[in-house]
Amino acid sequence: MRFANEALVGDLVLYIENNLKTIISLDELSQHLCLSKYHLHRLIKSLAGITLMTYVRGRKLTSSLTELLETNLKIIDIANEYCFEYEQTYLRAFKRQFGISPSAYRRERCELDVVNKLDTSVLIDVSKGLFIKPRYILRPEFHLMGLQTFIINSENKENLSANKFARMFYFNERYKIKGCIKENIYYGLCWYGDNYEYGNFYIPSVEIENAVREQGTFICKTIPTSMYVVFRYIGFHGPEELNIRNLEEIYYYINYKWGPTTVYKRSGQYHFEMLDTKRCSDQYCEADIYIPIET
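Structure for HTH araC/xylS-type domain-containing protein, as requested:
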């Protein structure tokens, strides 16, 4: 199976663009890319926010706008050219996508929001996957509860101690926490120590409804309202393999390429990784890295 990387996504985008006027099926794309339908679906949903076949249909409809504006072709002929089974199928899809009929668009020549080609320039390859250049979000205050340990960076690289501690928490301890909002959402909270380069506190955790002082050996951390820069990692491996060896290249990019050149300054003494296990499998993983920034 191929790795998740920019070349794979670029191959997919190019194949779709070259075949907009043919019938494109999920089976065909899977065969062309030597990648399972499951991985294709998850990859594009993560990158584009829509399913693969919704993206294909959106690109067909967007491309058909040129024929509507620059030719006198009948609408049924345009529908046939882009391999819509029936004219009515094209008409319904067009109205659903753009909120206007093809004939009205041809007449009014108005501005529309379109489905652009996926921009592979926002993707950066790493050894076992890829990550997406950042998006920016504001997240209100929330509360995490988990187990805390101190991780020495050199030992973590050698023994994957943070990953082992996280797996112990996820499989054995998280169910004991009361007031958990979503058990499928895992947080890996890194709270910086006095010497960030030497080691930091690591708190595998889940979100809880209300702040509490403690629950047995579990500690609570209130994360303040903040603006975040968010990097998404995608890999064709299980979430159990998410460790510093897979993420080191991303953190290098954040600290030494993005950090020195961005207009934003980091704030707070922490960052966290968030993973939705419902979006993962034993052969697929995606995780978001949240870095708090000043507004």
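DSSP finds ten helices and eleven strands in the chain.
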